[in-house]
Structure prediction request, 387 residues.
Amino acid sequence: MTLAQAIAEEFRRQFGHEPLQVRAPGRINLIGEHTDYNAGFVLPAAIDREMVFAVALNNEGTYRLRSYDLKESVTATPETVQRSEKVQWANYLLGVVAQFQKRGIQVPGFDCVFGGNVPIGAGLSSSAAVECGLAFALDHLLKTGIDRMELALMAQKAEHEFALVMCGIMDQFASMFGQDGHVVRLDCRSLEYEYYPFDAEGVRVVLCNSGVKHSLASSEYNVRRQECEQGVTVLQAHYPNIQTLRDATLEQVHAHQQELGPVVYRRCVYVVEENARVEAACQALVAGNLTEVGRLMYASHTGLRDQYEVSCKELDVLVEASRGVAGVYGSRMMGGGFGGCTINLVQAEHADAFEQHMKEAYQRQLNLELECYQTRIVAGAGLINNS
Ligand code: GAF
Prediction:
């Protein structure tokens, strides 16, 4: 039985009627970390780790929500949609319902079972996948005709208001706009995007899950955002055209190092350099130069570790252990940081040996077990056709 079938079964058992089924994937990000909320550039893709939904309207006037993986249920009504302190998973769903309501769309009672295989807390955006899956399903059921970009923005708002993480748009965008065999460069200011073919035959994206759950992630994430805003405030006083760090040059940042102070200065340098690395990586992809993409990935990791300070010992060990291994182009921590996965670009024929090497290195150096996933790049959220 597939995951989708199992979730449909559970839906019928719980609610006794037939659901609509939707899938929404997690994501990787080749390069461009912590640039999205600075209105910069990112290069993500949707992956074959996804959240699956079974959803249908009911005549009960209530929202009956069930997590297939946790075997927990939550009920709410249109009048009681609010953030829960106790049940974190329900926030991702109710946060989305709230966004429809805020747009003046009445969301009548519905039943929902969801579950999936995006590892939680691994930096693969399981929460964005949950938000996007329900946004997509409700849009379909209610025939609201809201476009994908708007749905992604609503999902992001759900994260801000119900999970209290002030995330950028990358994760929800990737879950909605992924395309089979392509990474997608997003300009997080204009929301224009461009797909870049990714050689799925020759190259594997191998994720190494440090197993460290990012407990610092949401608080430190919000602090990084504030530090970037502080940087903009300082720079804006000298260069009024700087709206976000995306507009700043390295020269401008260097020129005001004293005024920025050591921490904010480092954050600013990182963001400006990382934006430039995304542009360079796109050019290298077009030229088929994966060696250069890999070099940029390693440079990105160094910046995240030393300047942005969102890495951790385990991630650093994994990145270092990848260096010089046969077939490896590049490696870096991925996502918000403080745990989760490293993303590794590896020649397909070396991918299995690479995994083995990494597992041994992690065991030897930290006495920890390593889980690895070789991921495929797939399409973004969509209906599941069960026929
Ligand atoms: C998390 C956020 F949700 C994204 O918006 C992005 O900022 C990322 O961290 C860091 O690049 O995944």
User: Anything to note?
Assistant: The pocket of 2-deoxy-2-fluoro-alpha-D-galactopyranose is lined by residues 33-34, 36-37, 125, 167-168, 170-171, 335-336 (CB under 6 Å). The chain has two domains: 3-200+379-383, 203-375. The mean pLDDT is 96. The CA atoms of residues 48 and 376 lie 6 Å apart.
